[in-house]
């Protein structure tokens, strides 16, 4: 039987949701409050369409611990993070029982493809419904943020801004939609250059950067201007303006992280080769730009007319293992539990 949500006739506290990864165009890097996971800067992203995480959350009255299966395996460190996230929901619902969580990604996990963004957005979305919590999308975004910053943005689809917020308790540091995916349906080619898990995760990388990089304050001081340029570019559907501010933000974030001690070098040779190829295409007039997160995969964002040419150029680059292709998609949403199948 398909179960869309919530407590069914048998009284089960169970729900499943799907969320997609997002890719930051104006990057989040750095925390002003580690416990609440508040960022030092705002950020702007696009939510993807055909990569997804599907998660089934089933709370079990009488069960003490959480039992977690991610792509059919269990991992202690991941289970700990998921328990911390579910605790936020349990506190709100006033319950203390454990959950059985099954989650599946259709893309490589933890290799700089924002699996924590789609993962925690899907977990919060499903968990809240399983517990019959009536949370607004902004509240879900706030809770997802506490579990992984970028997850705040995957609650929404299309073009999304995660605002810095002013309040010390972080309740206003949430994501908000800027523009629907179909209002400006750009495409994204993802060049997979490694399937290994990254060596230094984002959280550790950000902490190291804040403690040791001499560029931290310049990063913070210049972000508001970048956000403003990107917002205007998105509103005006100005591809060239978005291309230039996005590559600038990406390279600036990596320069900041490269200057940490020891330096954080997330790229491999193929990543750099792909950057050159994207720039060469743009010089020939092809509407495409790149962005890279805390991992070696390169994401090339382009107008739909350019996608085949962009994919061919990336596929041909030495060291590229595969090229995925996706449009922009919706935010987190309910699915039937039997769609998870993990
Ligand atoms: C480079 O959201 O994974 O992808 O909040 O510590 O879980 P935590 O970090 P995370 O960091 C993402 C960093 C980034 C840039 C971005 O997505 O804005």
Automatic annotation (TrEMBL):
SUPFAM superfamilies: GHMP Kinase, C-terminal domain, Ribosomal protein S5 domain 2-like. Gene3D superfamilies: 3.30.230.10, GHMP kinase, C-terminal domain. Residues 189-315 form the Mvd1 C-terminal domain. Its EC number is 4.1.1.33. It holds the Pfam family MDD_C. Residues 19-175 form the Diphosphomevalonate decarboxylase-like N-terminal domain. Keywords: ATP-binding, Lipid biosynthesis, Lipid metabolism, Lyase, Nucleotide-binding. It comes from the Bacteria. It is an enzyme of class 4 (lyase). InterPro entries: GHMP_kinase_C_sf, Mev_decarb, Mev_diP_decarb, MVD-like_N, Mvd1_C, Ribosomal_Su5_D2-typ_SF, Ribsml_uS5_D2-typ_fold_subgr. NCBIfam families: mevDPdecarb. Belongs to the diphosphomevalonate decarboxylase family. PANTHER family: DIPHOSPHOMEVALONATE DECARBOXYLASE. This is diphosphomevalonate decarboxylase.
């Amino acid at each position: 039987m398909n179960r869309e949500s919530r407590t069914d006739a048998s009284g089960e506290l169970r729900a499943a949701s799907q969320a997609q990864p997002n890719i930051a165009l104006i990057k989040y890097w750095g925390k002003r409050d580690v416990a609440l996971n508040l960022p030092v800067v705002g950020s702007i992203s696009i939510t993807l369409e055909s990569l997804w995480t599907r998660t089934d959350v089933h709370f079990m009255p009488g069960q003490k611990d959480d039992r977690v299966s991610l792509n059919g395996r269990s991992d202690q460190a991941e289970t700990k993070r998921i328990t911390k996230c579910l605790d936020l929901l349990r506190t709100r619902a006033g319950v203390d029982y454990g959950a059985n969580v099954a989650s599946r990604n259709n893309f490589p996990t933890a290799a700089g493809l924002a699996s924590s963004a789609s993962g925690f957005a899907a977990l919060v979305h499903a968990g809240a419904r399983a517990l019959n919590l009536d949370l607004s999308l902004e509240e879900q975004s706030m809770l997802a943020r506490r579990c992984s910053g970028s997850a705040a943005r995957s609650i929404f689809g299309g073009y999304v801004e995660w605002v810095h917020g002013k309040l010390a308790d972080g309740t206003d540091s949430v994501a908000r939609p800027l523009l629907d995916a179909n209002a400006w349906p750009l495409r994204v080619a993802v060049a997979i250059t490694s399937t290994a898990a990254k060596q230094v995760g984002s959280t550790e990388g950000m902490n190291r950067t804040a403690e040791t990089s001499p560029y931290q304050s310049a990063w913070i001081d210049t972000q508001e201007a970048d956000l403003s340029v990107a917002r205007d570019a998105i509103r005006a559907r100005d591809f060239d303006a978005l291309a230039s501010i996005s590559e600038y933000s990406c390279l600036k974030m990596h320069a900041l992280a490269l200057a940490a001690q020891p330096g954080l070098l997330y790229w491999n040779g193929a990543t750099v080769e792909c950057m050159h190829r994207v720039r060469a295409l743009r010089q020939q007039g092809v509407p495409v730009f790149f962005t890279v997160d805390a991992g070696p995969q390169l994401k090339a964002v382009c107008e739909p007319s350019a996608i085949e040419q962009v994919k061919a150029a990336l596929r041909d680059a030495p060291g590229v293992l595969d090229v995925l292709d996706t449009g922009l998609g919706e935010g987190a949403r309910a699915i039937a539990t039997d769609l998870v199948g993990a």
